[in-house]
2-oxo-4-hydroxy-4-carboxy-5-ureidoimidazoline decarboxylase
Amino acid sequence: MKLRLPSEIRKGFGPLSLTLGNLASLPPHVPHDFRTPPPHGPAPAPATRPARHRAPRPTPRPATHLSRPSARHPQSVAPPPPSRAPPPSGPSPLHPQSAPITPSPEEPPLSRDPLTGEPLTGAPTASAPTAAIPGQTRAAARPADPLARFNTAPEAAAEAVLLACCGSRRWARRVAAHRPYPTVEALLAAADEAAYDMSGADLDEALGDETPPGLPPGTPWSAHTALRHAHEAYLARFGHAFVVCLDTDRPEEHLDRVLGGIRSRLDNEPEEERVASAEELRRVTRARLIHLVTEKGGLTGYSRPSVAV
């Protein structure tokens, strides 16, 4: 059986003629799965455009000029670019260094002579502060020889120094009035002569200014107690302190020398003891003068304060 199509349809299909046998031979219609490529092969890849070389955009420079002021944007100054902080000037914590040694401040120079009370040459004053004077300048401002300082000291200052050696004011005025002394031996000779010429009142004044001999450090307390009791007995009998020169004795011999002297001289008569005390006082005064004018130290065997010339 043949199918006849209208002429218009046949014109569209051409000489194609369909029969039932041709229709029966066509394969059944199968729905296409879009997840699998079509049966005639993969689809061609889309064409890609060639990559264009783009030049890098220029980095905008920071604004360093003043923008024109306007009503909406007032005039402003662009902040300067951040700058690096300077490295610390001190030592690095990773590399510790020893601290710099600073010289210790020198002792301030004396403004007045302790003996004369007069201003020293070149000493700073309160109105005109000056730099610290080195030790050489201060030493040059006063005589280096203690005897020379004693000879050039004012009369009142010299008498005060002599009263630290002997408590008689008349003796101190007489020795000070005969200055200057060319040598230490001349000073000692004048001091002995003035001591021999002291009157009874001068001797009483000098003995009343004396104090009991002291003991060296480290002496047991029992020794101090025995010395105090012995001196109390001597003071009750003669009315003044026990005087003895210990300048030539060793410190460990002082206790025996003082206790033995007090026991032996307690039996003396008052006048006899005055003569013995006057002689010991002259020797003590002589030893004190030697220590003062020769810079040998303090006063040996006695608790009287030493006075620097």
About this structure: The chain is about 40% helix and 0% strand. The two ends are 166 Å apart (CA to CA).
